[in-house]
Amino acid sequence: MPTQDRRTVLASAAFGALMLLAAVVVLVDAMRLPSTGSAVGPAAVSLLVGVLLGVVGAGLMVQSRMRLPHAVSGSPWQPRAGLRVLAQVGALVAFALLLPWLGYVVSTAGLFVATALLLGAPRAPQVVAYGWALAAAAFLVFDRLIGLSLPSGPWGF
């Protein structure tokens, strides 16, 4: 197990705790949603999201607890970290501005690709393929299966 910075480990634990809190909020809200009578409704997806948030949050907290005794003080220097944060904010703003014109799939795929590359994903062609696949799958689930209207853009997706 590689040695990690103590601040990074504690930040991961705090983020895991926030995810657990968000999971509780999502699950409580999902239980309050009215039944639509269809096989898969908004409550089903909300319950799945809440459970996944809770599992990932708990996993982060357990992982952080295991790494904390071996963590070292000090923080590793990350070159151009501030520039990457600004680029991510720019990607989010571009997503919000382009969503009505390009549609959900294209805008979401672009945001996914930008985020993955800013976080250091090694293979850009794979990242583009994953971005398109995830955005298209989310569009199909929410827009077609559940019936929540998402911006379709000029291409109908």
UniProtKB/TrEMBL annotation:
Where on the tree of life does the source sit, at the highest rank? Bacteria
Domain DUF1468, residue spans: 15-151
Which positions, given as ranges, span the membrane?
A: 9-28, 40-60, 81-98, 104-121, 128-147
InterPro entries hit by this protein: DUF1468
Record's keyword terms, sorted: Membrane, Transmembrane, Transmembrane helix
Protein name per UniProt: Tripartite tricarboxylate transporter TctB family protein
